[in-house]
Amino acid sequence: MLVPEKDELTFGFIKLTDMAPLAIAYEKHFFEDEGLYVRLEPQANWKVLLDRVITGELDGAHMLAGQPLAATIGYGTKAHIVTPFSMDLNGNGITVSNEVWQMMKANVPAGADGKPQHPISASALKPVVDRFRAAGRPFNMGMVFPVSTHNYELRYWLAAGGIHPGFYGRNDTAGQIKAEALLSVTPPPQMPSTLEAGTISGYCVGEPWNQQAVFKGIGVPVITDYEIWKNNPEKVFGITAEFAEKYPNTTLAITKALIRAAKWLDENGNANRPEAVEILSRPDYVGADAKVIANSMTGTFEYEKGDKRAVPDFNVFFRHYATYPFYSDAVWYLTQMRRWGQIPEAKDDSWYDATARSVYRPDIYLKAARMLVDEGLAEESDFPWTSDGYRAPTAAFIDGLTYDGRKPNAYIDALPIGLKGADVISGGEVTGG
């Protein structure tokens, strides 16, 4: 039995369904089984959450996958954050207003059943954006944070459909240089009301805030991130490198409890999801209507009102080695930071690998996993023991491009819209460096 160096802990989270491993580890006493006494605290936004982890007010937190990477390379707040545990795959969607959907729909082919064919390309949105711009109306869209999965997924989808989502400059954190669609930050729970008010015409967010738009009748989710990049990594559990070094047993104990929670969420064909939905619907956690949360957590997703489809892997917490912190996942986020100018200058492939290794900690993860197997709480086959930290190359993206985490620069150069090679943003223009 591990003896944690620090046993009273406070973890932060944002009110999204993918904080579920924290809630389940708490409610099912997995933390207590490891000798940990944990308090879970919802946070106002992602910046506050990160700042409080850095100052030590929080011992760790549910984080956007890009946050530990951005902090470690000094984009925004500078701090060395690490992750021994990836929290989930998939879980996001892109929603547009009813007005935009009616304009888009004419450009979306219908299937044999008369319903829109999925996945829906942003090329169906491009004529709408062009009409807005011709009429002098900015096309505004919301995402949750500049280094969020949502920002990069929304940008990927837009760019794959020929819509420029804008660059970041050295001293420009708005990310709207040369943009055709103007992306800005909106906190997740405020997305539906901001859409309803007409401030934004669409957004990318995690659940339950896409399904909330359907329930309120104010918008239509047009695509899930599973359709943009099948089984994409989503959130991570983040702690400071100092915490991991100072409290190694505590870090292992936390990781063990979270692995058990993730396994519980997916086991027996998602048999525990209804109970998870009830837990997440409580005010202490997500605090949304259980019916709204259940729409995605139990393997379905509703697009237009009444157009509910089976998406069994919309939320994945353990299958497909979802909890293992793959270096290649980290590298993908870094490629998108470079693509859009958040990393202002070219880096060689070895820099991407070294940065990923400094943040993602599969060594801690596998040590915790070995303990769980030895204790009879997990199976040997649950974990990728022989992985070098890189997933096999994949073309499971909406545009069919192949991503190989070992060759980040070749991937960046293959993307049709974005910075390439030695490109830099200077004076609002792209130059060759």
UniProtKB/TrEMBL annotation:
Keyword line: Cell inner membrane, Cell membrane, Membrane, Transport
A Pfam family per the record: NMT1_2
Entry keyword Transmembrane: no
GO cellular component, one term: endomembrane system
Broad class of the protein's primary localization: membrane
InterPro entries, per the entry: NrtA/CpmA_ABC-bd_dom (IPR044527)
Subcellular location: Endomembrane system
Record bears the keyword Plastid: no
Protein origin, superkingdom: Bacteria
Protein name stated in the entry: Nitrate ABC transporter substrate-binding protein
